[in-house]
Structure to design on (328 residues):
């Protein structure tokens, strides 16, 4: 009995220390939001705006962004799955959390069980864009050009499993034309090459494309939503559905995650801060200007976030399988 008590004592001490740490969270230790794509891209953009909006409700602590890019977003996600569960390392990820398990068969973590779900952040439409020197002026002409250039067209993406990968694959499947995909560590660097004319086409979030469309740095052809969008840079773009691709609809979303095992009081504090951040007028304005819609409290909570991701896995898995667009 005595020895059992003795062996349990360190555990009790550790648990007490953990509880005390949770009470003082975040203290003055910075919080890192891991972005699984390159700096300067759309996920990075959302994360940097969110980091700013989270600082105040987290007591003024420093919130930094760490771009752990590569492998379509799975390197950064894996880093957070394996990080210390103390609330100081978080993950901002998009629809890839729901599509990666089907698009990529061997990811080194489990989306459903290796993370604590903190809440959704926003919904973001995508756009089909082209290099500025591309001749077609509209979607109809683009389809003619695609037909005339079969086998010669490059399509940029952020790696296997990314949102641009998913959108590009579904697009090729819908029009029945294969293109040569060019993977980057994020669509930030892919955008640089598209503007420079090294690649022909890309399907990417409006959070990355609306500024470039407005500045006429790229050609814009269509949006991937069921309805047309409101921001000035996007309002004249047709939907892919109205352009003849019946049922084509891809809207991506972002959610915030912590490593599995993060103490409940810490998760509660981060979720409370997230809800405040999502009502920050400055954050809302920046997101809306880029075509994104910030979620309401009803979706910015762990239970609904987890339910939503499970529903998205169930929704996309058959679509990806039916289209035969998954990769090893
Ligand atoms: N937009 C990228 C994607 O296709 C990710 C990024 O660079 O943020 O998933």
């Amino acid at each position: 009995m005595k020895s059992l008590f003795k062996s349990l004592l360190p555990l009790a001490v550790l648990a007490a220390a953990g509880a005390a740490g949770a009470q003082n969270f975040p203290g003055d230790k910075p919080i890192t939001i891991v972005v699984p794509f390159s700096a300067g891209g759309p996920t990075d953009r959302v994360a940097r705006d969110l980091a700013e909006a989270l600082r105040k409700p987290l007591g003024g602590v420093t919130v930094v962004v760490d771009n752990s890019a590569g492998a379509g977003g799975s390197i950064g996600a894996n880093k957070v799955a394996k990080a210390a569960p103390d609330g100081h390392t978080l993950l901002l990820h998009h629809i890839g959390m729901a599509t990666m398990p089907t698009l990529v068969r061997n990811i080194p973590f489990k989306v459903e069980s290796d993370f604590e779900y903190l809440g959704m952040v926003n919904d973001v439409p995508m756009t089909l864009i082209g290099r500025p020197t591309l001749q077609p002026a509209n979607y109809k002409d683009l389809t003619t050009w695609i037909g005339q250039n079969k086998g010669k067209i490059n399509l940029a993406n952020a790696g296997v499993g990314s949102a641009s990968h998913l959108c590009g694959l579904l697009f090729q499947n819908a029009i029945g034309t294969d293109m040569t995909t060019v993977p980057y560590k994020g669509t930030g660097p892919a955008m640089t090459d598209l503007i420079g004319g090294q690649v022909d086409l890309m399907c990417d979030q409006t959070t990355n494309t609306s500024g470039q469309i407005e500045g006429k740095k790229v050609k814009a052809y269509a949006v991937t939503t069921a309805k047309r969008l409101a921001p000035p840079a996007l309002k004249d773009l047709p939907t892919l559905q109205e352009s003849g691709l019946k049922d084509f609809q891809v809207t991506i979303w972002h959610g915030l995650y912590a490593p599995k095992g993060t103490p409940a009081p810490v998760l509660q504090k981060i979720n409370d801060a997230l809800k405040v951040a999502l009502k920050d007028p400055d954050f809302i304005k920046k997101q809306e200007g880029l075509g994104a819609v910030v979620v309401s409290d009803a979706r910015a909570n762990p239970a609904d976030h987890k339910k939503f991701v499970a529903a998205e896995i169930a929704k996309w898995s058959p679509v990806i399988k039916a289209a035969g667009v998954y990769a090893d």
Summary: Strands lie at 31-35, 63-67, 89-93, 115-130, 154-157, 180-183, 201-205, 219-223, 251-259, 293-294. The first helix runs from residue 2 to 24. The two ends are 53 Å apart (CA to CA).
